[in-house]
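Every protein is a chain of amino acids, and every chain bends into a shape of its own. The fold becomes a row of whole numbers, each drawn from a learned catalogue of backbone shapes. The protein below has been through that process, and both of its lines are reproduced in full.
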Amino acid sequence: MKINQVNYSYAKSNRQVLNGLSFHLKPDRLNVVAGLNGAGKTTLFDILTGVLKAEGEIEGLPKQNDVVYQQQGVYFTQTLKGRDLVRLVLHCDHSGKTRVRKKEPFVTPCMTNEEKEKMAELWQRPFGQMSVGERRWLLTFVMCRLDRKLYVFDEPTSGVDPHSRVQIMNRIRKLVEEPGKTVVASTHTLHELQFYAVHLVLLHQGKAVFTGTYEDFLTEGGSDNPDTAFQNLVISERPAVSGT
């Protein structure tokens, strides 16, 4: 999939949120989009998923019913139980392949024992009584179970503890390993990327100022500390260039 010269600005605003944005997405890697707050990450995701229309070209973009979009601020009533959320998402799948019973926690052969135990714990628990990490893990898990070509996760590990973060990232990693799927996520937690095969895209002033592996990101940023490398690439007066 290739994003080619994409431009976008919001109505009644002179600021160009995306300005000739160009880069590739890789199907065999977790594509991670990073940048300052307001860099255009969510705007880009809204364009990829059809929420917004933009100028430019996106080659290889699947039809909207082949896209999953997990947003940060999805609201569910606090009384909704874990089983209801799982059934709500999976029964909305247009393929109609999955049916979930209320009485028995949903399990699949690909789940680890820890994931099966976690699903059993959350099955009867109201959404309002789940921790942030439990909510995000459950949402990520069921989104990954939908059979699509493009998956977009907007900061899936934001605000969660280290253990929940690992569980969420491992579930997304397994999704990346499935053939025929492209996975995109945003994050501000750059340290976690060293443990996964990622294709990193750094947004700044509407352009991609870096695209490449995590190791190349550290090298080009001039530091083994990803936060320092980020600042060197984004905060400095380095001219923005498009990557591939």
User: Anything to note?
Assistant: The first helix runs from residue 41 to 48. Residues 86 and 142 are 6 Å apart (CA to CA).
